Amino acid sequence: MLLRIAGSVKTGRKNRSFYRKSFIWFLIAASVPGLIIGVSTYWIAVGPMEKNISELHQNQIEERAQNIDDQFSSVELDISHWAFNPRFGSNLKELNFVYHFKETWDITKTLFMLQGSHPLINQVQLYINGEDTVLFQPEFYMLDDRDRMQIDGFERLIEEGTNIYWSDMLPATEGEGADTEKPIVLVHKIPGDSSSPFGVLVAELKRDKVINLLKTMTPYNEGLTMLLDKDGQVLVADNAEETDMGETLRGEVLRREAPSGTFVFEQGGITYSVSYGKLARITSEWTYISATPITAITSTVVKISNTIFIVSASGLLLALILSWLASRRVYLPVKRLLHILAGNRGENLEHGMDEFQFLEKQWNELHNESLNLQMRLEEQRTHVRSGFLLQLLQGHLSSYTEKDLGARMKLYGWDIEDHHFRILHIQLTGYDVLTERFSHGDESLVTFAASNIIEELAAQQFDQYSVMNFHDLTVAVLVMYPKGALISEQLQTLGTDITKAINGIIQMQVTITISGQMERIQQIPDMFLEVERATGYRKFVNQNQLIHMERLSAHSEGSEMHYPFALERDIIHAMRAGEKEEAERLVTLFLEDVLSARGTEILVQQSMLQLFGSIQHAILQSGISPHQLFHGENMFGQLSLIREPEKMLRWMKRRVIAPFIEEREAKANTELKRLVESTIDYIHANYTADISLELCADLVGTNTYTLSKYFKQFTGINFIDYVTELRIEKAKALLRETDLKINDIALEVGYQQRYFNRIFKKQVGITPGQFREQAEA
Length: 777
Known about the structure:
By secondary structure, this protein is of the alpha+beta class. It is about 60% helix and about 15% strand. It holds the Pfam family HTH_18.
C-alpha cells in the first residue's frame, strides 16, 4: 500500500499539467482584468449605460404614466357616477330651489362630498338652466342678467362637446379671467342620460396637484415634465422656468410620427433621456413628455473607471506575487484529494490525463457505487417500518394527528381499521454473569439474536406485529389485533415461549412486561413509557419475571425501602482514609444488603443513587470538585440506566471509588513534595548555621518522621546526608577559589575545624589541605 501511495504521488508530480496551466491563468487573471475593467469602463460603459438608463427611464415613465392615467380615469369615473345619480335627474329643471330648501341643501352637501372624493379635484360646480338659473359652487347662487357673462360661459359648455369631455375653459364672472394659466376642467352634462341637457357638472382639477403628479415621471427629481392637450398646447408643466427647453422638446416630440418612444436630447452641455407617450382621455388625447438628465450619472462612472484604472495599474506588481501564492493555496485541496483518491484506490494518473480528469474519473466511479448503494437501500425499504415504529414509541411523532398516523401505518402495509394494540417489553438480564460467552460491548449482538428469536415466536401467535430492537438488551413487540379479540392467553403463551427460548439458547433471564389495551395509535408512546416504568417493579434478581400492568397492585408502588445507613457511613470513612480495597468490599456488602430485602429494581436503584449522592457530598467536603473528578459527566444519569446488579457494583468501584482515591493520593503527594521543596530551599539558604531535622519539620508544619520519610523518597538520600554533601561542595569551592584558611572555611560551611577535617576526609577521601594542594597543582 505504501509503495502504491508513493508511486501515485510521484506520478502526480510529473503530470501536474493542470497546475501549470492554472498558474499561468492565475498570472493572467490577476494582472489583466483590472486594466481591462478600467479601460472598458472608461471607453465603453458610458454609452451603454446611457442606453440602459434611457430604457430604465422609459419603463419607469410608462409605469408612472399609467398611474397618472389611472388618476385621471378615477376622476372621470367619479364625475360620471354622480352625473347619473337620480339627485341630478330631470326633476331639477322644474325645481324651485328657494322653496325646496332641503333639496337644495342636499345638492350642496353632495357637491361637497364629490369635491372631497378625489385629491385632484379642486372645486365642483353645478349649473342648472331650468325654471330658475342657478349655480352651485358648491354653495347655492341665483343667477340673473348681471351674471350674463358667467351664464353664457356655462351655456357654451352645454352646447359644446359630448355628454362628458375635458376642457381648458371655466366660466368666470365679470372681472375674472386674467389668470394666464389655463384650468383643467372635466365637464359632464346633466341629466347624464338625456339628449337635451339643461345643466352641467363641472370639476376643476388642482393645478399644483397635477404638477406634483407629473413630477413623479422624473425619477431623479431633475429635468422637465409637461402635459400637452390634443392640439399640442401645454396644459401643465413642472418646470416653468425652462421655457426655451420646453418649447424645443415640445416641437421635437410633435414632429415625431411614433405615438410613443424615447430618445436622447442635449441642451446646455447636459444630456437628457426623453420619453413621451399618449394618454387617451374622453373625446381627447393628451401627450406627456418627460426629460431626465443622465450626464451627472455617467460622470460618476467616468470617475470610478479612472480610479479602477489607477488602482489596477498600481496593483499589477502585487498581483504577480500574490498569484503564485494563491495558485498554490487553491491547488492544495486538489493535491490532497488526489493523494487520497490515488492512494486509497491504488490508481495512478494516466499519461496525458490532468488532475481534474482523474478526479472526474474517480467521481464517476464513486457515483456508480453510490447508485448501487441506493438500489440496495430501496431493497431494504421494509426497515423503514421499524424506523417509523421506533420514532412512534420514542414520542417523536407526537405532533401527528390520529388520522395522519393511521395513514402512514396503512402506507407501510398494516391493517389498523377496527384494531387495538398491546406492547410487550422484553428485558434480558444476567449479561454480566456470561463473561465466558460474551465480551464487553457485545450487548447489541446479544439483543439482535434475542430479537430474531422473538420475531419467530411472535409469528406463531399473531398475524400483525412488529419487533423493535433497542440494542441495549431490551426488545419491544407491538401487537395489532381486531377489536373485541381475546388475546390474553396468546400473550401469556408468547411470554412463556420467549422465556424458554432465551433461557435455553442465550442462557439469560427474561423480564417481560405486558401493557394494557390501547384503542388509538396516539396512546402508544405514552403506554410505552408506562411499560418501561412498570419494568422497574421487577425483583432485582437474575430470574425470569412476567409483569402484567393490569395486575400491578398498589403494594408494588408503595413497598417500603430498606437502606443500610451504617454501611454507607463505613464506605465513606474507608474512602476518606484511602482504603480502596476496604471501600470496595463495603460497597459489595451494601448492594448485597439491599438485594437481600428482595427490593424491586426501582428501590435498588434509588438506594444506589442515594449512596452515590452521599459519596459525592463527601468528595465535596474533601476539597475535590466532583465536576473535575468525573470530567463533567452526568453520573446520576449513567447510574440510573444500569439494569444489572453486577454492572452497577462494577460501575461504583471503577467510576467512583477508584478515581476519588487516586485523586486523593495525587493531591497528598503534591502537598508532601511542596514540604520537601520548602525544606531544601531552607537548607540552601541556611547551611552555614546549625540545621536539624526537628527545626525544619517545625518550619514546614509536620513531624520529623514524615519529613524524613518523604525527604528521602523525593531526593533519594537522608536529610543529614543531603546537608553534609551540600556543605562539602561549598567547602570544595572555597578551597579552589579562595585563599581563606581551612579553619575559616570550616566556619563558613557550618563546621568546627577538627570535625570538618574528619567529615571532609570521610566524604572526599583526602584532607582539606591535600585537596587544596591538588587543586593548585
